[in-house]
Amino acid sequence: MKIFLRRLIWASVFIGLVFPVTTILIYRLLPPLVTPLMLVRNSPMQYDFVGLEDISPNLVQAVLVSEDQRFCEHAGFDWRQMGIVWDELIDNGTASRGASTISMQTAKNLFLWPSRSKVRKVLEVPLTLMLETLLPKRRILELYLNIAEFGDGIYGAEAAAQAHFNRTAKGLTRGQASRLAAVLPNPLDRNAARPSQNVQKISNRITGNIRVAPAALWSCL
């Protein structure tokens, strides 16, 4: 029994600490070959990892403006946004947007399953802390932009630019980048190439927010 417990403890330590830390350190230098989300989707996969320098600044800015405006300030968790979401939930029973940061979404995409659950949200916390501790902000954003889902079977900025606009990620215009950012919350129901009225409205708002955003928003890159 003692031997079994000892093995169980060591296995838990390996799975909970050694494996993710080692994997994150590998991802500091090398791109992920695949993510859990890519494996569970039953669609042909389009995925081409490129460096942040090969992604248009328009997309970088659009994603930061729409997904995580305090990315360069926080250490993985946007406590201010969490407070806003909590207040909205208390007052209205629903929130206008979530409080998940780019760091949290990257941790989820790299290691966890896509369905919503309390267990998954709990596991996101230590994984996000590991990412923020072991990787620079620039690399976290680079990973996110390369593994985020932009459509059915479409992963990352390069594949999204090719599939939706027949151009490279580096050549995305501000309008195209804003449409890609607009589909991120629901990439299976939204289409950047053929945007619905609602997606175009969100895209226009993102474009406007980019124009007035302070340079500090992407100062860590």
Summarize the structure.
This protein has about 220 residues and is mostly helical.
Cα gyration radius (Å)? 18 Å
What oligomeric state is this?
single chain
| Mean of pLDDT | 87
Strand ordering within the main sheet = 1-3-2
Secondary-structure-based class equals mainly alpha
CATH A-level architecture: Orthogonal Bundle
Overall outline: globular
CATH class: Mainly Alpha
Q: How many strands appear in the DSSP assignment?
A: 3
End-to-end distance: 52 Å
Beta-strand percent range = under 5%
What is the total domain count? 1
Largest sheet report: 3 strands, mixed
Report helical residue fraction.
Answer: 55-70%
* SSE topology string: HHEHHHHHEEHHH
Q: Name the CATH homologous superfamily.
A: Biosynthetic peptidoglycan transglycosylase-like
CATH fold-level topology: Penicillin binding protein transpeptidase fold
Number of helices: 10
| Unreliable residue runs | 4-14
